[in-house]
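Ticket #4471: complex job returned nothing on first submit. Input attached below:
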Amino acid sequence: MIVERWQYWYTLTIETPNCLEDSEKTLVARNFRYYEKKRGNRRTGSRLFGSLGEAIFFAALLLAGCVAIILGIVWLIVPEWRVNHGFVENTCKVVEKRVVEVKSEKGVFFRPEVKIDYEVQGVTYSPYVYDIHHLTRSTREEAQAAIERFAEQQACPCWYDPVDPNSAVLVRGYQWWIWPALLIPASFVVIGAGGLVYTALHWGKSAERRAATVQSVSAAELFDRPAATDAKYPYIPDGAEITSSPGTRLAYRLPLTHSPGWTLFGLLAACIAWNGAVSVFVVTVVRCFLAGTPDWPMTLFVLPFLAVGIALVVVFARLLRRAAGIGPTLVEISDHPLLPGNRYRLFLSQSGNLTLKSIEVLLICEEEAVFLQGTNARTESRGVFWQPLHVGGGTIIRPGEPLEAECDLPIPAEAMHSFRARHNQVEWKLIVRGEIVGWPSFQRSFPVVVRPATVAHAGGGAAP
Amino acid sequence: MNNPEITIRLDDNGRTYWPGATLSGEYRIDALESQKLQAIEVSVLWYSEGKGDEDLGVHEFWRKDAESRELGDLRRPDRFSTVLPQSPLSYDGQIVKIRWCVRVRVIFRRGRDLVCQKLFRLGNVAPPKPPRPNQPERTG
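Support reply: We reran it on our side without changes. The output follows.
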C-alpha cells in the first residue's frame, strides 16, 4: 500500500509501451527512483525528486549566502561605521602598552593593546583598547610596531561609544578587504536565488513544456540553443562567420576551425607565465651557487620545473618554425551555405617554403555527441562521410609562389544537414592534409554549413 | 477500472513529411476519469537519441487545463495541425539520431503522467554508410 502511494505521489519519467492502434507507445511511470539513469533512449528517475533536490540545494546556497552577509554586516561593517560616525572623540592618557599572545588552532597571534584613562561625565574609564575589531598580527614585531606611536603617560585622542563609554578605540578607519570578501557570500545569494527562481519556473512542468517555455524566451535561447542559428532553419548554424570574408578567386574565403596563431599565442603565454615563475627560484639557486653556498635540496626541487619550462620553449619554437615554414592555407568556395545535390567550386592555395610530398582536400561529415560519464562531460566524434576532393603532390613551394588548385565540391543529394544542439551536432568541414619533406604532416580544418535541400511539395501533405 | 489509453492518428497515414508541410491529425483518450485530470499537453517535437545526452526541441505545444474547462469530452477525438519547420530533419546517424513525434501527455492531479507518442519522419535524409576503417573516431 505504501509503495502504491509513492507511485501515485511522484511523477516519473520511466517509460513502458502501452499505446493503442497506430500510436507508437504510451509512456507511464513505474516505481519511485531516487536517482536518474539513462538507458539507451530512456531515462528513469523522479522529476519531482530532482526538482526538490535542486530547490533544497539552491535554498541552502541562498541561506548560507544571506547568513554570511548578515554576519559580515553585523560583525564587521556596522561596528566600523559606528566607530567612524557614532563614537565620541575624547582625550585620554596612555597608561600602559602591551602585546597579548592569542593562541588558536592556526597558531599563535599577537594583539596590540593600550590601556588608557579617559573621563566621561565625571566617570573615569580605564580599558585596554586599540581598534574595534581587536585584530591580531602574525608576528610580535608587527603588534609592537602598532603600539609604538603611543607614548606612555602622554595624552592622545580616543573615541568612545556613547552607549557604552567603556568601549573605546585609539584607531579608526575602514578595513578595505571586507567589501571584496562580501562578494563570496553575495555570489552564493545570486546563484541560490537564480536557481530557486529557475526551479520554481520549472516545478512540476513536463519536459515538453519546459522546452517550449525556454524556446519562447529569447534570452534563454542564448543558453539552450546556440545563438548563431537562422530562425528559418532552427538548429542549423547560420554560417555568418564563413561568409564574412570575400575570396579573391571565388565568392568566400573559409575561416580555419582553429587558427594556428591562437595556438601559438596560448603557448607563448604559457611559456612566459611558467618560465617567469620558475625564474624566481632559478635566480635564488644561482645566487646560492655564486655565493659558494649551494642549496642542493632547492636545486633538485627546481630542476623538474626548469625542464618543463625548457620543453615549453622547444615546443613553441618548433610550432613557430612550422607555422612560418608551412605558411597559410587558403580555401575559397563558390557559394555558401551548401545544399545537398548541388556542386560547388573550391580554390586551394598553400604558401610557404617547403617540398610537398602530397596534399589532399577532403570533405568530411562528423557526428559529435556530448555525454556525462560520472561527473565528467565527454565528447565522442565519429566521421560518417569522407570524400577526397583533390589529391596532389610532389611540388616545391617557394616564398611568393604558392601552390594553387581548383576542384569540384559535390554535396551528396541525401546528405544530412549541419545540426547543432546542446549535446549533439552534425558538422561538415573541409580538411586540407599535407605531407611535407623534412616536416611533420599538417592538417587544417575549414567548417562549412550544409542546409536541407529546398523541396517543392504540393499541398502540404505527407511525402510518398 | 481499465487503464486510460491514448490514441494518436496522423492524417494521410503518412510517416514521412517534407519541411514546410502541414502535419495534422487527432488524438483520443479512452477510459479516463476527467475529475482526476489536471491537464493534457500535445507537442510536436524532435528529440535526439544515441550516444549523447538527450536534446529536445518543441516545435508546437498546446496545453489544455482542467481548471480552465478546456478539456471537453475526452472520448471525442481532438484535432491538431501545424506547419512543420525546415529543420532539423529526421536522421539515423551512428551516434546522433533525430526523431520527430507527436506526443500527448496526460497529467493527473496526483500520480503518474500518461504519455503516448507517434513517430513520423521529417525529410528524407539517408542514414550514413558505415565508416571506412581509416576514418577517425575521437573521444575526449
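The two ends of chain A are 52 Å apart (CA to CA). Closing as resolved unless it happens again.
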